[in-house]
Amino acid sequence: MITVSGICKSFKVAKRTSGVGNAVKALFRREYSEVAALNDISFSIAPGEIVGYIGPNGAGKSTTIKVMSGILVPDQGTCTIMGYTPWLDRVAYVKNIGVVFGQRSQLWWDVPVIDSFDLLRDIYNVPEAEYRSNLKLLAETLDLEDIIRTPVRQLSLGQRMRCEIAASLLHNPSILFLDEPTIGLDAVSKIAVRQFITRINKEKGVTVILTTHDMNDIEALAQRILLIGKGSLLYDGDLTTLRERYVEDSQSDSPSIEDIIVRMYKEYQIT
Amino acid sequence: MKAYLSVFRLRLANGLQYRSAALAGIATQFFWGFIIIMVFEAFYNQSPVTPPISLSQLITYVWLQQAFLAFIMLWFRDNELFQLITSGNIAYELCRPSGIYGFWYAKLLAQRLASAALRCLPILIVAVFLPQPYRLSVPVDMATAVLFIIALLLGLFILVAISMLIYISTFVTMSAAGSLLMFGVIGEFLAGMVIPIPLMPSWLQSIVNVLPFRLTADFPFRVYSGHIPKWEALEIIPLQLLWLAALVAIGKYAMGKALRRVVVQGG
């Protein structure tokens, strides 16, 4: 369903040391350095999988998600998702995916949530009957009935995030990209979000790719994890194998998932 | 198409709720209108030669400028769009199965229409009943009125196409201030917002006439007052269509270019 091979992406970053003197120098000659955000990333994902995409800050997780959702054009490599190349067939392709960027908002700030939803219905051209039934299901499972007529600016972060996730699923996408969906959420909201992700994966067969720093998310959701560090893919496999690999040299009998990840980061020297 | 209509409706509904802003705007525009008219009145009283546009036509010009300010001002902007670009929230717009150009165009158009809808009627109605010489004259016949409406709407479409270029330039500059100021000051001068175009020296007029800016404001207003006769208006309306097509084509091309190399930073 998703095949990514040999994706590279580097960014040009303007460089200069502090101080007025250097700032003046930079007026005439600017130095750039190339930062390789992604370096030869390849993997493939089958339909119906939930894949956890992890790595330290700045590893390239969000960049990969942006490439896969057609927002960024990579320097090299190919990516085929459901027969499309995301950045070339953007408009045809994005009908099939839903994206949630945990740090950004897609809802209109000043109007009730339902207005944003109605707009999305028209943007994606969702038939009215399908839209009604999707909305009903989403409102029930994400507990949105009471907040759907409230302007977005008056919602709490957890309420807003639940609406954001619902907004990404109104058009029945077959792939869902979640970039840090649980960032800043309290325990109750986190669990609600996790249960919901499991449910749409089971009931609708939605393929989910999820980045997060909360290892409990990964443990609760993902059968398979991809570890990325400094732009390279370092591990691709299931969580139990990983646990077994690191369980021996640990002090306690059952190390927490956080321990394991920290150990893994250390081994690959990516912290 | 449905998506564009939908965002248009939502933006329109959203824009119509700012009542106190509209009231304040109306007051400001009356104030400005009177000051500008008084300045021109003083000039006209002292003028030794017959001016190229009559005072009553000029007064009509000024009132229409004030009433349709939202249609013709380039500095009238949507900060949301600028934020979208500079903060990276454009990521979400890029995940939608619709062209961003059309989507933003609909948004900007709705915003200007909403703002004008709240302001233009009160200003026009009051200005029609003002004592002479401040009165806004009505069009001489139906044909003039129809031509005016066509010219005004086409002018609005051209203006939104020009303002799209400001937003697209933000992809490169990352700050709206520069292009907004440049487009705003130069564009409005060339549209006859500072000095009505008939009063400009002829060398300047010949420059202004080859640019699209005057088609957004000066042209419809002079059609209204009859300063541009009907047959001439019919000749210029195709030119408006031509400019509109050219500006949209340029905007779409530039946006395609900008999006190819867009970098969504952070997070």
Automatic annotation (TrEMBL), chain B:
The chain crosses the membrane at residues 21-43, 55-76, 113-130, 142-168, 180-199, 236-255. It comes from the Bacteria. Keywords: Membrane, Transmembrane, Transmembrane helix. This is ABC transporter permease. It comes from Cohnella luojiensis.
